[in-house]
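Need tokens for this chain, all 178 residues.
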Amino acid sequence: MTWKHARRLRQGVQVACLLLFILLLFATVQQRLAPSLSDLFFRLNPLSALTAMLSEKAWIPRLGLALLTILLTIVLGRVWCGWLCPFGTLLEWARFRSAHKRAARLPVKLRTVKYFLLAVILVLALLGNLTLAFLDPLAIFTHSMTTTIIPVLNYSITSLERLLYAVPFLRPVVDWIE
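Here are the structure tokens for all 178 residues:
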């Protein structure tokens, strides 16, 4: 497989994972989905799985999918952030050019802060404290979607439906869409 084909495959997986995440999120918010599927991405996330198991000091079988992510990471590289994580996909698509330039100018010691923060999160999880779990990118993304994006979309769509429903000849179309 050439680099070009591998890149296209990764982009396809990214799109599929992002769409699946959004579908699962909306289905969960609308309570149209069994709770067993709603946390699929958290079960695939190695950081979420590891911190949960460390804080419980036990193996949690539902989080075993994170092992698959870790094994694929060993073989293919950054599988979670580069292939599966919906937040990572959006960040990759956003392409903040100035951020790359600023990151290149950062001293090496400042770039290691992320590893220190990871160590602190894991030690706190080992002590049974998941306070810093809110720093997990997937948790940030999920929280942002459920507290901001989805309510705004819900309000906007409902307002548009009300507006269109006031026009008599559009009522059948709005009813069909609804």
